[in-house]
């Protein structure tokens, strides 16, 4: 359990990395640098590196530190740091406009699902071949071998299997709770769902709003997180046999197979029984949850208006360093279902973690020396040296293997199995991702029935998988593309 201190910044801590001190102080030789056109010295290459506008001003200084570190290793490369809109919709518009119009910076931030979409539209550079080459900033290990395998698998385009982005952070979702309120009312950290509900019942009886739940739009993700966690607890074993490549997650073709064979059917209680559980839980959420976004929910928690909120490790710095917070806080994994809630419950934790985040890519328009330098910079960004800086100063959980999390992220260590099925994710089926939240709003406020809700989602899921099967020539005979 992670314990936060009142208004106190964390002390810097080191990451354990399997590299020598000498490695951190040196880079690749000049032979790896962009070549000049005549003299011995390489010509200057100018790049613009864009990041999402940080919520905290201090983060800009960390990004500049990373840029400065690279320029010391490659003096011929000059990098200008730029910022994108922070709002998700505005950010996506900015990125799409820049990629299509050819005005995007040489290195752009993205989402791993967007890299799949944009590569399919031929808007991004295909980095697949580069992943098979050494990373000079990681002791010349093959680049793809330095990443957690599940991260690399998620980064692969679900249709072509190509890689067009680099993920620097993985996600872990936790419940942040107000320790002062828990102590005041004699409450213990819950592990099971009945314990979790009992805690909220006692808080409500004492006129404390138990939970801030954000459900204003699909991008708030609270409903997605909860439904995914619960669904895997009661149904993962039903589709484990469809994991044909044994990577502990169902990919697009494997999901298509399970849907095509009727094993995944959202109108079945095997798959929709979690929704009434979520709806029953909603009685303990702050009023207006269908109009509450993620930032507002977090602010309610920081002000002490609610006792708990869900957030990822990407929000840790904001919560820990908040001047508005006047209480100590802790974190715990979302409690797991028991057989009292569903007879098929595995009665153990599942984790949403392991998904790629903080993704960067190179637009297709970038060529020549700029492409060479931009690719080299991505390799530097995905080095243990940079992972140490980001872990200690941005509180990011690295995607690299054999790199220990800093002390301030210990509360985000995995406590359960990674989820196997994630068909509600936007990169699998964007419309289903939207249906889950949009129709879910109506279901939670009693405007549509459960039967109507799941019927519409099943139609969307079935249609999406049919389209994927047709586009890729997948069938039961070729095991939906798994048999070549």
Query: What Rg is obtained from the alpha carbons, in whole angstroms?
Result: 23 Å
Proportion of β residues? 5-15%
Enumerate how many helices there are, as a single number. Answer: 18
What is the spatial order of strands in the main beta sheet?
Answer: 1-11-8-10-9
Oligomer: single chain
Structural class: alpha+beta
Average pLDDT value? Answer: 89
User: Based on DSSP secondary structure assignment, what is the total number of beta strands?
Assistant: 15
Query: Between the first and last Cα atoms, what is the distance in angstroms?
Result: 46 Å
Which percent bin holds the helix content?
25-40%
Overall geometric form: globular
Contiguous runs where pLDDT drops below 50 for at least 5 residues? 1-38
User: Can you summarize the main beta sheet?
Assistant: 5 strands, mixed
Description of the structure:
With 484 residues, the protein is of the alpha+beta class. Helices cover 40% and strands 13% of the residues. The protein contains 18 helices and 15 strands. The strands form 5 sheets. It has a 5-stranded mixed beta sheet. It has a 4-stranded antiparallel beta sheet with strand order 4-13-7-14. The chain has a two-stranded parallel ribbon with strand order 2-3. α10 (252-260) crosses α18 and α17 (430-444) runs antiparallel to α18 (450-472). Mean pLDDT is 89; it is low at 1-38.
Write the layout of secondary structure elements.
Blueprint: E1 3-4, H1 21-25, E2 45-52, H2 57-73, E3 77-84, H3 88-101, E4 108-110, H4 112-120, H5 128-131, E5 134-135, E6 141-142, H6 149-155, E7 165-170, E8 173-178, H7 179-184, H8 193-205, E9 209-212, H9 222-239, H10 252-260, H11 269-272, H12 274-281, H13 294-303, E10 306-312, H14 316-321, E11 329-332, E12 350-351, E13 356-361, H15 368-381, H16 384-393, E14 397-398, E15 417-418, H17 430-444, H18 450-472
Parallel strand pairs: 2-3, 9-10, 12-15
Antiparallel strand pairs: 1-11, 4-13, 5-6, 7-13, 7-14, 8-10, 8-11
